[in-house]
Amino acid sequence: MVKGRHGKYCPGLFHTAYISSIGKPVCGDYNDCIGPRQAFSKGYFPSVEELEELKPEEVRELLLGLPCIGDYSADIINPHGGFPIDVWSVDVFSMLFYGREPKNARDAVAKIKRAGIKRWGKWAWMAFYYVAQDLENLSKKLGVKLRLE
User: Fold this and answer.
1) For 4, 6, 93, 147, which has the most beta carbons within 10 A of its beta carbon?
2) What is residue 18's predicted lDDT score, i.e. its pLDDT?
3) Measured between alpha carbons, how far is residue 64 from residues 2, 21, 77, 101, 105 in Å?
4) Euclidean distance between the first and final Cα of the chain, in Å?
5) Percent of the chain that is helix, strand, coil (3-state, to 5)
6) pLDDT score at 22
7) Rounded to the nearest 5 degrees, what angle is found at the Cα of 59, between the Cα atoms of 82 and 77?
């Protein structure tokens, strides 16, 4: 949760907390909320329950059809999960998978995303979350510097 400019709490971008708020003025007024996504979410959007009944790819397409939602955000807020790799996290997962950082982070995103999904399948989002939350301990255990800066 993040605070809007008037001190009221607004939904963040993690799974059901965000999805369930789409189309509802959770802060009393959309102008109170932080971020561009709330400004575009006034129309109807399926409930979490309806999204869970759809195939993960169908939910992803619905999410990508919303303004300001890209690949990374769709993977984070999809109730089926995903592997939300971006130019910051690609360095960490490249180090884990291949023992080196990529030469070009932007170009490596798709490759690392495929590798994570192949490795962990439907549990890839949990692996991403675990790694992102435990960088310091993983760095010590593996003897490498993992970072998200």
Assistant:
1) 93
2) 47
3) 23, 17, 11, 28, 22
4) 21
5) 55, 5, 45
6) 52
7) 50
